[in-house]
Amino acid sequence: MGKIKHQTVNDTSAAVNTFMLSFQHPHKDMIESLRGLFLSLSINVAEGIKWNAPSFRTHEYFATINLREKQGLGIILHLGAKIKTLPEGGVQIDDPQHLLKWLATDRASVVLLDADDFVRKESALRAILLQWILYV
């Protein structure tokens, strides 16, 4: 039998808590706010450490906080490690505030400059994330 997906020590909230304890970043409070947002989307959303950053999943990882964003924090939205069959044109997300920067048909990013920017964009970001997880 193969290894059960996402059952490693890094695929837990405990791993993220440990990571955050020793992690130094000027936007650490915003990272905690993002954790709360992601985990409030659905009981099916969980967190872990992937690519040395807090990441979020349902049955596949779909978002990773980009800690190296030049200004603020970034969120990289993706569809996990395996190639997915997508509708023609790729992922279709209603984004009236134009928060998404498309990196490919199945990958996008959002930049949050600071805590105030997060508050301004939180509702629109939540709407985007709720749509995104339907593709995972």
TrEMBL record:
<dbReference type="Pfam" id="PF08818">
    <property type="entry name" value="DUF1801"/>
</dbReference>
<feature type="domain" description="YdhG-like">
    <location>
        <begin position="27"/>
        <end position="133"/>
    </location>
</feature>
<protein>
    <submittedName>
        <fullName>DUF1801 domain-containing protein</fullName>
    </submittedName>
</protein>
<dbReference type="InterPro" id="IPR014922">
    <property type="entry name" value="YdhG-like"/>
</dbReference>
